[in-house]
Design goal:
heterotrimer; A alpha+beta (about 700); B mainly alpha (about 190); C mainly alpha (about 600); B: about 190 residues; C: mainly alpha; two-stranded antiparallel sheet
């Protein structure tokens, strides 16, 4: 069985480049572009330079034809680079969506009159299925739509959705009842109640999200756009203001020429925060895409951003903090019984126990005492674990072997007429529980033999992970059904900040509400139907794809791998998106310093030759200086596309350090980089001018 | 519009409180505690005749007097009802010509070499009663010659009229020109 | 700097810093209605005022009602002053028989004082009666200062309150500002200023004989009062000898104290705080600078205290101090180098044009940065005559939107708007939805902060551009070339930011400047106020997000540096072209010697 993750798509993959190029021209349509006000202004500026270019062709404008011509070309390139960045990001999403869509080939469904096996059905196309229709899906057939299994159990191949080719069991009732349209039943048959109308299914939603078709701007994005819009307005006024000021200055100085419209437009484009405005849409789309690479689907951009803000993380113990299964690590005899006696009884009680815990008991008993028993005697009667008795074991050779939680086993032996319990049993049980392990008491008839120490194995490296989270300011809370003693011990070992023992669904909900009341952003993972209310309440709710339909409905992020530690990746990507925006904004604005030093002396030189001292870069000529600044301003966009798509690196460290770190790179770097870049371009441009 | 009534009433109340009562109280206390200052720090001669205010400079152009700083008040220098500076910019050609003229007229009276800035640059109020000790010193030979007194006597007079920094640290050393000239008239009429 | 200048400057800042905490605490108590040492006297007065004016003190207001009350009150104040100016001729306390103001000058002046700008297109001793000075200007110095303060307090409440719909009661905040803070301090300071020589009387102007009568050329006027010109167009003059001069009088000290304390800045006399009757000694000078910075500085602590984190207040103060001291250093350095063009003429020493001897360069420089860093606008030095780089410092301090201490209240709320913007970008840079004091910063807060911060900049850019296209506006310049441009930029910077100081050579008393200035002052004042109150309202409604390690600490050095950078960069990016055509090119010209 292979596991195929979504393949990484290289940034400048030719399959995406070509359509993206085409799309970037389509996006020049002002009716589309006005949604990005900064780039819309640049487009208008480009049109203006085309006019001044035409005027210099006819001689109406005295500026050299090559200057206005090149300027116009580079301004258009600035806009196109911006639309291209967005198209490229969308293209990556589309490529992913296309691979998803393949799985949604039209299928015919068997619509049942009644939700019963053997009921009459009619064949209808999947598109005609509506909510609450019942369909029959048999081996070898595609499931026609999202739904819940209401009868039967089947092996389902969900590779189309999850990339996981190992089939999974889907059965009615319980937490494994949800099925996804487009997946295939491999064995046996099920009846599915459809839960989504066509176009609203999980797959449909995923596709449209990934394509960016229904992407709504997030609150942070809107706030940032406000800032960018305001800056653009100010720079527009700055440039407009230069014109009358330069006209006055010409009169005052007695020589020179006022600053021309072409140059003002060039200055405006350089000053406007084009870099961030050009890359802003791409950053958001790329964030979704990065999540998808990790096999996570965010149902909204908001959810990812909220993930970046999370400061309380509710984690299920099992599967997240500890390995899914507990392991037997010791036999502790009581009441004078020997350890081997206990081991033999434990082995008997566990031979038919196929749970990982049961198997680990068998393994331990064999390792320790070389016991060879492989199979139960023929007369053996297996007592399966039940929720009522909370015991399991066998009856064989007239003896009753049992193992189970301490209180239930003790109750059981009392029921068999045991008079006195071993004096040390309570202490041993306690000791094990306090150590974070699960004590499993073993009995033979009315005799208590001892305790098996079933230990939770904390995942390797989890402590470091929590340490990272702490340094990011995120509090981790372990949720477990264990008793408080056990929970405390595991919490200490895993180094979580807090834990909630014997957690019931309504208590989870209450806990989330409490934290939210205090202003915290709470994230949680869940998969069961009883998690649904808590998931709905949480700010960031990650549902396992193996989870039930209600859980998936309540969540805003779906983890296709059903790996609960993914939450950490999600948080990181959420932060990355914000950081990328912030860093590029700072970079974009820092760049203006160098651009001023390039353009201001160039545009004023004829009026005030003294201002030549501001030409600190010693740019070849005024025209070359202005062109170089404009070219730098345009080229920086494609140069930063990889950064926008990959996101700036996130290092878990305290906020203050992170700010300094990013300020040094993007703030100081943003001031220095254009000095070098513009000078470099000027060296080239200067050769021709 | 519920707030309209308090808006009007508060305007009236604060006008009475801050515009009437407050200045009246200040005037009352001030004229009781610091009557001389409150009235304008006027100097009177021995006949009780008002000869000026120790805070308001007067114009002097006679060779026999120490000259104050240039004043840019309108109509004539040191016109107290038209306080203000020249507001000349540092590169204004007219201003530079004015300064050059002032330097020349100082040189014409026998002052040699570079002159202190405060003697050729107008004050902010146009009523600055002070000049720097250096500005007084360069004028000593001229006044001594015109009055027929020794430079030494004048230097002493200037030193006696040089006010120290207030509280020993604030502001700058300065000479009150009106006070100095009044004393000069007493010393050598 | 000589040792005395170092010492007095350092002592000044030590004294200021020492008073920030006690005074800030006092103001916080006043606004929170706690008991202070003044309560026994003023609580009954306060309650009496509320009863007279029909105010229910228990009623808390949402931001809209608060803003409505504030605007109504300010409009009423403006109307009252406008009326006083137009009726000056028939009103009492007018010993010099000054006539009414022209309608456009009255409009400009009324708006100027209502908006705490105190831009003066008139000359106090030649145009304003004692009645106008007291019942007009002095009153407005109080109420406009109080208006600024209450907005800052309302905004602080917005940050502090959680899930609340109200931000305080405007009338209560207003009354407390005046009664507990402005009036007592002004009273004490006015008396102190009198001790230094500031006058306080209601006498007629005094005629005093000159020790040496002065002869001058007086332009001859025709019957209508227009100057006569000869055939060549030169004015005809006659030689006149003045035997005596007239020295103006008036209730100066009572206005001087509140003029500095309320960062109003409108001088009783034309020469403002350079006038020996307004600012007679080096000590009165230091005291006035102290007054200018006191409330704005103290409010940073008030803010920190009310927000439950005094460090946060100190952090803002640190930003203000850093920029103020930087500007002070540059100004002092530029002025002490003198004017090389003048040096060439055989003159030595610092640039003394437009400065008073008694203050010394340190006292002049400190006053200049204090009055322009705050929105005071009183001057003891003629900014127009500063060296180009020196003059660029007061201009730049104004262009930074008046947050370097800033006007009383206005400085704090504008600074907080800068903080919101700085926090927003910094928040993104560390990967979190930005928050400040536990309040999330979202689009609405961004809008309001941007309006608060950028309104003045936009007004300056628009109006200075327009002025350059209006020949009569250009003709108002007193100095030619780049300096003339600086005068116009300074004028609109000063009015839009409600500062009120001027490169005073510019003749502002024309219909163009009176009207554009009135618009600039009005929008520059009330757009940020309404935006700040709206932000207060929306912040108050938000829930509180407790800080964690992932929260950016806004009370530590890195954020202080970042905020400083944001303020400087926003200002520099907005005004670099204009400054390069004004002071920068003039500086280069001065050094080049042409």
């Amino acid at each position: 069985m292979t596991k195929h993750k979504p393949e990484p798509i290289s940034i400048f993959d030719a399959r995406i480049m070509r359509p993206a190029l085409l799309a970037s021209f389509k996006k020049l349509d002002p009716r589309v572009l006005w949604r990005n006000p900064v780039m819309f202004c640049v487009e208008i500026a480009s049109v203006i330079t085309m006019v001044t270019f035409a005027m210099s062709l006819t001689g109406a404008n005295k500026e050299p034809v090559w200057f206005t011509g090149f300027l116009s070309v580079w301004l258009w390139l600035t806009v196109i680079f911006a639309t291209f960045a967005e198209a490229l990001a969308e293209g990556r999403g589309k490529a992913r969506a296309a691979s998803l869509r393949k799985s949604r080939t039209d299928v015919t469904a068997k619509r049942l009159r009644k939700p019963e096996f053997g009921a009459a059905f009619e064949a209808v196309p999947a598109t005609e299925l509506r909510k609450d229709d019942y369909i029959l899906v048999e081996a070898g057939e595609m499931i026609a739509g999202d739904g819940d299994v209401v009868a039967g159990a089947a092996l389902v191949n969900e590779a189309a959705v999850t990339g996981e080719s190992a089939p999974v069991v889907r059965e009615s009732g319980g937490d494994r009842s949800a099925v996804t349209g487009g997946t295939e039943v491999i064995a046996s048959a099920i009846i599915v109640r459809i839960t989504a109308n066509p176009g609203e299914t999980f797959l449909d939603r995923m596709i449209s999200l990934i394509e960016g078709a229904k992407r709504r701007k997030t609150p942070n994005e809107i706030a940032l756009e406000v800032l960018l819009f305001a800056l653009t307005l100010v720079f527009l006024l700055v440039c407009a203001n230069i014109s009358p000021l330069s006209i006055y200055s010409v009169k005052a100085a007695g020589h020179g020429t006022p600053v021309s419209l072409t140059i003002l437009v060039a200055l405006f484009v350089c000053l406007a925060p084009t870099t961030i405005a050009a890359l802003l849409p791409a950053i958001g789309i790329a964030g979704m895409d990065r999540l998808f690479q990790k096999n996570v689907i965010a149902l909204s951009g908001r959810a990812i951003e909220a993930a970046g803000d999370v400061n309380v993380l509710l984690l299920d113990k099992t599967g997240t903090i500890t390995l899914g299964n507990r392991e037997a690590v010791a036999f502790v005899p009581v009441g004078g019984h020997s350890e081997q006696e206990l081991a033999e009884a434990a082995l008997m009680a566990s031979l038919t126990d196929e749970t990982p815990e049961g198997r680990s008991i068998v393994v331990l008993a064999k390792q320790k005492f070389g016991l060879k028993q492989e199979a139960l005697p023929v007369d053996a009667e297996t007592i399966a674990f039940s929720a009522e008795t909370r015991l399991s074991g066998v009856n064989t050779g007239g003896k009753q072997y049992r193992k189970g939680a301490s209180d239930s086993t003790l109750a059981f032996v009392k029921g068999l007429g045991a008079k006195a319990l071993p004096s040390d049993i309570e202490a041993e049980v306690d000791k094990i529980a306090r150590g974070g392990a699960t004590p499993l008491v073993v009995s033979r008839d009315a005799d208590i033999l001892g305790v098996i120490n079933l230990k939770d194995i904390v995942k390797g490296g989890i402590q470091e992970r929590f340490q990272q989270l702490r340094s990011m300011g995120i509090k981790t809370i372990m949720i477990t059904g264990d008793n408080p003693l056990t929970a405390a011990a595991i919490a200490a070992e895993a180094q979580v900040d807090d834990f909630m023992a014997q957690a019931k669904p309504e208590e989870k909900l209450r806990l989330i509400r409490e934290y939210q009341e205090q202003g915290y952003m709470v994230a949680m993972t869940g998969d069961g139907t009883n998690d649904a209310p808590a998931l709905a309440q949480a700010d960031v709710a990650v549902a396992m794809n193996t989870g039930t339909q209600p859980a998936r409905e309540a969540a805003n992020i779906i983890d296709l791998d059903s790996n609960p530690t993914k939450l950490l990746d999600i948080v990181e990507i959420g932060k990355q998106i914000l950081m990328t925006r912030g860093n590029l904004t700072t970079f974009s604005i820092s760049n203006d310093v160098a651009k001023y030093f390039a353009i201001i002396p160039a545009m004023m030189l004829s009026i005030y030759p003294q201002l030549g001292v501001l030409n600190v870069m010693h740019l070849a000529s005024p025209f070359s200086a202005i062109l170089s600044a404009v070219i730098f301003n345009a080229l920086i966009i494609p140069l930063l596309i990889p950064l926008a798509l990959k996101g700036t690196k996130y290092r878990p460290m305290p906020a203050e350090k992170l700010l300094i770190y990013n300020l040094l790179i993007y703030g100081v770097g943003g001031i220095i980089a254009p000095f070098i870049g513009i000078k470099g371009i000027d060296l080239v441009v200067g050769m021709f001018v | 519009m519920k707030e309209l009534k308090p808006a009007i009433l508060f305007v009236i109340v604060f006008t009475i409180l801050c515009g009437g009562i407050y200045p009246a109280v200040v005037t009352g206390i001030a004229s009781a505690v610091f009557p001389k200052q409150a009235k304008g720090s006027f100097i009177t001669d021995k006949n009780g005749r008002m000869v000026g205010s120790s805070l308001i400079g007067q114009p002097f152009s006679d060779l026999r007097y120490f000259w104050p700083r240039p004043s840019a008040t309108s109509d004539f220098g040191y016109n107290p009802v038209a306080s203000g500076g020249s507001n000349s910019g540092p590169t204004n050609p007219d201003y530079l010509k004015t300064v050059a003229d002032r330097v020349k007229s100082l040189h014409d009276t026998g002052i040699q070499g570079n002159v202190p800035a405060d003697l050729v640059e107008a004050s902010a109020s146009g009523l600055d009663p002070h000049i720097s000790p250096e500005a007084a010193k360069v004028q000593v030979p001229r006044v001594a010659k015109a009055r027929g007194v020794t430079e030494e006597a004048l230097n002493k007079l200037v030193a006696a009229h040089t006010e120290d920094r207030q509280l020993g640290i604030l502001g700058s050393l300065r000479v009150n020109v009106l006070a100095l000239n009044l004393e000069l008239d007493k010393l050598a009429p | 700097m000589n040792p005395y200048e170092w010492l007095q400057t350092i002592l000044f800042f030590i004294a200021l810093l020492a008073l920030i905490k006690p005074f800030g605490t006092f103001m916080a108590k006043v606004y929170q209605g706690e008991r202070t040492f003044l309560s026994p006297v003023f609580v009954p007065c306060e309650n009496l005022l509320y009863r007279i004016c029909g105010v229910d003190t228990d009623e808390e207001m949402g931001w809209k009602v608060y803003a409505a009350g504030l605007l109504l009150f300010n409009v009423m104040c403006g109307v009252a002053l406008f009326a006083i100016l137009l009726l000056q001729g028939v009103l009492p306390l007018n010993p010099q028989k000054f006539p009414a103001f022209s309608w456009h000058l009255a409009l400009n002046t009324a708006i100027s004082f209502t908006t705490n700008t105190n831009w003066q297109n008139y000359s106090g001793e030649q145009a304003a009666s004692y009645f106008t000075q007291m019942f007009g200007f002095t009153v407005h110095n109080f109420v406009s200062a109080a208006t600024g303060m209450v907005v800052a307090i309302a905004l602080i409440r917005g940050f502090v309150r959680r899930k609340a719909s109200a931000i305080g009661n405007f009338w209560v905040d207003l009354t407390r500002s005046i009664l507990y803070i402005l009036l007592p301090l002004s009273l004490v300071y006015a008396i102190f200023l009198v001790s230094q020589g500031v006058i306080q009387n209601f006498s007629d102007y005094k005629t005093v004989p000159l020790v040496q009568p002065t002869t001058y050329d007086k332009p001859r006027l025709d019957d209508k009062g227009n100057p006569l010109k000869d055939a060549k167009g030169n004015p005809i003059t006659e030689s006149v000898t003045a035997q005596s001069v007239t020295i103006p009088m008036g209730p100066v000290a009572s206005q001087e104290a509140i003029k500095e304390l309320g960062t109003n800045g409108g001088g009783f006399f034309n020469a403002n705080s350079a006038h020996p009757y307004e600012n007679p000694t080096p000590l009165s000078n230091m005291a006035e600078i102290f007054l200018i910075l006191l409330i704005s500085g103290g409010l940073t602590y008030t803010f920190g205290r009310m927000a439950g984190n005094p460090r946060q207040g100190w952090a803002l103060l640190a930003v203000m101090l850093a920029i103020l001291i930087l500007a002070l250093g540059v100004l002092y350095w530029a002025e002490s180098n003198g004017n090389p063009l003048v040096a060439k003429l055989g003159v030595y020493g610092i640039n003394m044009e437009g400065k008073e001897t008694r203050f010394g360069l340190a006292g002049s420089s400190l006053f200049t940065v204090a009055t322009t860093g705050t929105s005071c606008g009183a001057v003891n030095t003629m900014h127009d005559s500063l060296t180009p780089l020196g003059g660029m410092m007061p201009l730049s301090l104004i262009l930074l939107s008046e947050v370097i201490f800033g006007g009383v209240g206005t400085g704090l709320y504008t600074m907080l708007a800068f903080v919101v913007i700085a926090v927003f970008v910094a928040g993104l840079m560390i990967g979190r939805t930005p928050e400040f004091l536990g309040k999330k910063i979202e689009a609405r807060e961004m809008w309001m902060s941007i309006i608060t911060v950028l309104t003045s900049g936009i007004l300056i850019l628009v109006f200075s551009g327009v002025a350059m296209m209006v020949p009569s506006a250009v003709a108002s310049m007193a100095n030619p070339g780049a300096h003339g441009l600086s005068e116009v930029i300074y004028a609109f910077a000063s009015m839009s930011n409600n500062n009120g100081s001027a490169f005073a050579g510019l003749n502002g008393n024309t219909i163009f400047y009176n009207l554009t200035g009135a618009v600039a002052m009005f929008i520059g004042r009330f757009a940020p106020i309404v935006a700040s109150l709206a932000m207060a309202g929306s912040l108050a409604e938000k829930k509180y997000v407790p800080p964690s390690l992932g929260t950016l600490p806004t009370d530590k050095v890195p954020f202080v540096l970042w905020l400083t950078l944001v303020i400087v960069i926003v200002g520099a990016l907005t005004f670099f072209p204009a400054l390069s055509l004004g002071p920068i090119v003039e500086h280069l010209t001065m050094l080049g010697g042409n």
